[in-house]
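Annotators were shown the component list below and the corresponding predicted structure, then asked to write short factual statements about the assembly.
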Amino acid sequence: MNRVYNFSAGPSVLPVSVLEKAQKELVCYGDAGMSVMEMSHRSSAYQAIIDECEALLREILSIPENYKVLFLQGGASSQFAMVPLNLFGKSGKADYVLTGLWSKKAAKEAGRYGDVKVVASSEDKIFNYIPKVNKEDFRPDVDYVHITHNNTIYGTRFSTIPDVGGATLVTDMSSSILSQKIDVSEFGIIYAGAQKNMGPAGLTVAIVREDLIGNAMDICPTMFDYKTHSENGSMFNTPPTYAIYICGLVCKWIIENGGIDAMEKTNIEKAAILYDYLDSSNMFSPTVMAKEDRSLMNVPFVTGNDELNAKFIKEATAAGFVNLKGHRSVGGMRASIYNAMPVEGVKALVDFMKKFETEN
Ligand code: PMP
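Structure shown to annotators:
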């Protein structure tokens, strides 16, 4: 069977060359005589793999030295609790900007441990825009402000990072990490599940400024304390060894393909190809109308007719364009076009959509 164009929101498409390299090394990695999956995480062979993965992530994102890179588990969803449990050491207050289901979940979880205020929300319009915020909107004594950088379900992103008036800014970058240049020093914590732009599910990466480590709440479980993982090189317990290895291969692929600048350039190009068509089509329309708020990674669109949506998804699937069904809260379709989706995949999808529009 041939590979399809996979527009899944996550777990999602990986570079073919990464999969082929993993296949080649699956049974015997280097001269280890075993698979990476079979290695002790305490072996020197494995230490070299995790060290390289960290070094590559640092290189791609220009992560400053005063930030730790932690390889964790439990998904981005565990970070919804880990962030407040680690940061509610001073005032126990945090401000959240709600731009989708994931930020709502994050805020709700944080509310279990402290005083959470929603300072802005775009829920009034099914999260199809990014609310404007000013530094005056945030309480002066919060322990942190939380934003979701890219909204996987609704297809919006913060194209500029809000001014939070010097507060510690925490961001969920699950669906945008490694897709565009960012200035890590603008954030106290960046966290992301790996299963979109970094590798397979099972790995969660947290990039944490050092001064935010070591002040966890007393009730914080050992496994949820950033200090536990930072002091133990992400090996307090067994880390997701194979997912970290694949993440390293993905990072190498990014660097071989021009690094973060090239990823961003291609991602802008891909989103423009799709949006240019959606903006001009008489059948399909994008759900995010505010151009500056449009995600580079997730593009939701609709026809306005459920039967037509279903027919489109069915025919697209048969033609090799899969996982285009939108999230149930938006309906319609969504094309997730992460780093590993080639420009040709997006062009082919648009050609297919044009043909469908003509025929229907
Ligand atoms: N945040 C965002 C922005 C997401 O897209 C997702 C998953 N799609 C999550 C959090 C939850 O991630 P996980 O499944 O890794 O817990």
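Statements collected:
1. Residues 10, 75-77, 102, 148, 152, 172, 174-175, 193 surround 4'-deoxy-4'-aminopyridoxal-5'-phosphate (CB under 6 Å).
2. The two ends are 29 Å apart (CA to CA).
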